[in-house]
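stage 2 :: seqdesign
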C-alpha cells in the first residue's frame, strides 16, 4: 500500500492537529489579549502568520476561559475597502451595517466577547487605508468592545494606537521536531534526530521551506535519491514569493558557475580573491632600466649636483640589473 506523503501543506494550516510550536509567541499574544491590548503579528511571507491566526481563533475560547467567545478569521484582499471589512464582520455577527460606527453599536449590544483575527493587513496599507483601519479597530478594542489580532508582512508600521507587536521568526529545533511528529503520525515513517537537524539546517527553520524539505525527505524513504539536492533544486526553481531563500540554496553556485562552458577558472574555486594578493602587472624590462637614469636627471635638475646624480644613476642601474637577473633564474 502506498503511503500518502503528509508534507503537502502549501498554505495556512487549518487542521488543529497539524499546528505546532510558537509557544513563546502564543504566550505573549494571549497575555496581551487578556489585558485587551490589540496585537500586531509581523514577519516575512510563509513564516506562519496565517496559520497562527487560525490557531488563535480555534483555541481562544479555551485559553481565555470564555466559552461564549465569538472568534472570526478574516483575510483581506487587494480590492477590499474599510467598509467591506466592517460589513463582513457585522454579517458574521448577524448585524446590519457597513461602517465602524455600526460595528461599535453592534458590539455594545452584544453580551459576548468578540475576537477578530485580521490577516494580510499589508494589502490594506498598500491600498492606502491600512493605517486608518488598524487605528479604528484598535480604538474599539481599547474601549473593551473587541479583541483584535492583526497580521501583516514585513515590519510593524507606524500607527496612532499602541499595539503589542510579535514578530515571527524561524522555528527552533524543538518546533521542527514537533511539526515533523505531528505530520508523521499515522505513517510508519520516523525521522531520525540527525535528519531533523538536517531539515532545520537546510530550511533555516522557515516553516514553508521546512514543509518542502520534509516532503522530499519523506519521498526519499520511498524512492531513494538525494532528498537534500532535490529540495534545493525545488526552492531555487520555485521560491516562496517575497521570502528570502535559505542560505543552503546558494551552496555550490560558485562552483556551478565556474563549470559552465567559456567560464574563466581560478585556482581558488568558489572564492573571490583578496585584491591585496593579486599579482602586479608586468612592466617592460627596458622601461625598468630607464628608471634610475631618469631619477638621476631629476635630481640634477633640482639640485645641480652632478656627482650625486651620477652616483644615483649608477647605483640604480646596478640594483635594477641584479633584480632582473634574480627574476630570470627564479
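stage 2 :: out
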Amino acid at each position: 500500500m502506498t503511503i500518502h506523503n503528509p508534507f503537502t501543506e502549501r498554505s495556512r494550516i487549518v487542521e488543529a492537529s497539524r499546528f505546532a510550536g510558537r509557544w513563546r509567541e502564543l504566550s505573549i499574544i494571549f497575555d496581551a489579549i487578556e489585558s485587551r491590548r490589540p496585537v500586531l503579528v509581523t514577519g516575512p511571507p510563509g513564516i506562519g502568520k496565517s496559520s497562527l491566526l487560525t490557531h488563535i481563533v480555534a483555541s481562544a475560547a479555551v485559553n481565555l476561559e470564555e466559552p461564549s467567545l465569538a472568534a472570526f478569521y478574516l483575510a483581506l484582499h487587494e480590492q477590499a475597502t474599510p467598509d467591506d471589512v466592517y460589513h463582513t464582520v457585522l454579517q458574521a455577527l448577524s448585524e446590519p451595517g457597513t461602517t465602524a460606527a455600526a460595528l461599535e453599536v453592534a458590539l455594545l449590544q452584544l453580551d459576548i466577547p468578540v475576537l477578530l483575527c485580521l490577516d494580510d493587513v499589508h494589502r490594506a496599507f498598500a491600498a492606502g487605508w491600512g493605517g486608518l483601519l488598524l487605528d479604528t479597530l484598535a480604538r474599539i478594542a481599547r474601549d473593551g468592545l473587541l479583541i483584535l489580532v492583526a497580521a501583516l508582512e514585513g515590519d510593524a508600521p507606524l500607527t496612532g494606537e499602541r499595539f503589542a507587536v510579535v514578530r515571527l521568526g524561524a522555528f527552533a529545533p524543538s518546533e521542527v521536531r514537533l511539526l515533523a511528529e505531528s505530520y508523521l503520525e499515522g505513517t510508519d515513517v520516523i525521522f531520525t534526530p540527525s535528519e531533523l537537524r538536517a531539515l532545520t539546517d537546510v530550511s533555516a527553520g522557515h516553516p514553508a521551506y521546512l514543509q518542502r524539505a520534509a516532503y522530499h525527505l519523506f519521498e526519499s524513504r520511498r524512492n531513494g535519491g538525494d532528498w537534500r539536492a532535490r529540495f534545493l533544486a525545488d526552492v531555487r526553481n520555485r521560491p516562496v514569493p517575497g521570502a528570502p531563500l535559505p542560505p543552503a540554496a546558494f551552496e555550490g553556485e560558485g562552483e556551478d558557475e565556474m563549470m559552465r562552458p567559456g567560464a574563466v577558472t581560478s585556482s581558488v574555486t568558489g572564492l573571490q580573491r583578496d585584491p591585496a594578493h593579486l599579482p602586479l602587472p608586468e612592466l617592460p624590462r627596458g622601461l625598468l632600466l630607464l628608471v634610475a637614469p631618469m631619477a638621476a636627471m631629476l635630481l640634477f635638475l633640482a639640485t645641480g649636483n652632478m656627482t650625486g646624480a651620477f652616483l644615483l644613476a649608477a647605483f640604480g642601474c646596478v640594483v635594477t640589473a641584479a633584480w632582473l637577473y634574480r627574476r630570470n633564474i627564479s
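stage 3 :: structure notes
- The chain has three domains: 22-167, 173-261, 285-329.
- The first strand starts at residue 39 and ends at 43.
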